[in-house]
């Protein structure tokens, strides 16, 4: 370990300063137990990274990465983890059946729940042992649980979890066949479909054409046919029983099972999609394209405020006349498009 000092700040106690870093997280735990007389398995170790985000040290990998964030003195905050589950009252204010968007803050265990009907937000925290990644994707299942997968920077991940937002609990699932981030995700008939995405570092990574699906009943991943071209910042939707995909790397919206179902979007950009009856709303680049699956063509275009990759971590949610989604470019922004008035706006930022 590098020659750096270590400062430990224990909640409610005086801090201590050590001349050298311990060589592993196990050694760090012994130091904590020695100086503070606590069970190190019951403490939470956090720090502020160079971007001023709060991050958690979970294992040797995250410990080494954390130490690399400091030039000469590593500063960790120590607090006793409350093993009592967080009260369900935090969530109970959002009745079952209401439409919500979920957002997982990177490098933390925090999740935001945005109630679309009231346009209000609540935050909950998951137990120690999970840390949400950048550019991951997730989709809500009919059970109300969330399948969360991938993400990671600078290296993409295969990780997958089943999250319960109402009890703040999680279960590790088998990893995806391919590590990826910035991918498309959709649920249909007992399966979660994953399309495209990126391998490894953003901008320096390679876009992917590999697709796969998770069969919930058997808890297994199955490979699907590749996209015709690799696509990053990708999105997937289901119309009837057919899965459609789009993303940076192609200007076409295509059916996953056949290349004959193809719509020319006339823009090669990432984005997100929502379905209403047999129409797909593609939020991408400079315009929203309203696509008819029956006619396989764009039937309407609405200009967006500026040209962007409007990729979202999760599928948009439709409520009354509007489409709501979480925009990745400015982390945690909730965006709203009114289909009747054609108004597009950013509602609120979840970045706290």
From TrEMBL:
Repeat listed as a keyword: yes
Gene3D superfamilies with a match to the protein in the record: Kelch-type beta propeller
Xref: InterPro entries: Kelch-typ_b-propeller (IPR015915), Kelch_1 (IPR006652)
Protein origin, superkingdom: Eukaryota
Alphabetical UniProt keywords: Kelch repeat, Repeat
Pfam families: Kelch_1
Keyword set includes Repeat: yes
Cross-referenced SMART domains: Kelch
Protein name: PB1 domain-containing protein
Organism phylogeny: Eukaryota, Sar, Alveolata, Ciliophora, Postciliodesmatophora
């Amino acid at each position: 370990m590098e020659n750096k000092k270590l400062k430990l700040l224990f909640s409610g106690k005086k801090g201590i300063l050590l001349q050298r870093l311990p060589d592993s997280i196990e050694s760090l735990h012994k130091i904590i137990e020695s100086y503070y007389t606590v069970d190190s398995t019951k403490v939470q170790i956090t720090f502020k990274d160079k971007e001023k985000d709060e991050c958690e040290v979970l294992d040797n990998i995250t410990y080494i990465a954390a130490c690399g964030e400091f030039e000469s003195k590593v500063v960790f905050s120590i607090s006793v983890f409350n093993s009592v589950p967080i009260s369900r009252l935090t969530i109970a204010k959002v009745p079952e059946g209401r439409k919500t968007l979920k957002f997982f803050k990177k490098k933390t265990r925090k999740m935001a729940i945005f109630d679309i009907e009231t346009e209000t937000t609540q935050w909950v925290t998951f137990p120690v042992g999970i840390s949400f990644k950048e550019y991951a994707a997730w989709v809500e299942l009919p059970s109300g649980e969330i399948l969360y997968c991938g993400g990671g920077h600078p290296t993409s991940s295969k990780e997958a979890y089943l999250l319960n937002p109402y009890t703040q609990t999680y279960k590790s699932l088998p990893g995806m066949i391919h590590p990826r981030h910035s991918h498309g995700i959709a649920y249909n008939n007992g399966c979660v479909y994953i399309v495209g995405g990126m391998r490894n570092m953003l901008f320096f990574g390679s876009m992917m054409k590999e697709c796969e699906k998770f069969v919930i009943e058997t808890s297994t991943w199955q490979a699907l046919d590749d996209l015709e071209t690799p696509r990053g910042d990708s999105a997937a939707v289901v119309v009837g029983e057919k899965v459609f995909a789009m993303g940076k790397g192609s200007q076409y919206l295509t059916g996953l099972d056949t290349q004959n179902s193809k719509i020319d979007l006339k823009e090669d950009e990432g984005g997100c999609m929502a379905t209403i009856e047999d129409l797909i709303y593609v939020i991408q680049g400079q315009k929203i394209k309203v696509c008819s699956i029956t006619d396989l063509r764009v039937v309407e275009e609405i200009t967006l405020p500026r040209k962007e990759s409007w990729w979202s971590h999760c599928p948009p949610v439709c409520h009354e006349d509007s489409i709501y989604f979480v925009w990745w470019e400015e982390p945690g922004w909730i965006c709203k498009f009114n289909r009747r008035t054609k108004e597009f706006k950013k509602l609120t930022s979840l970045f706290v």
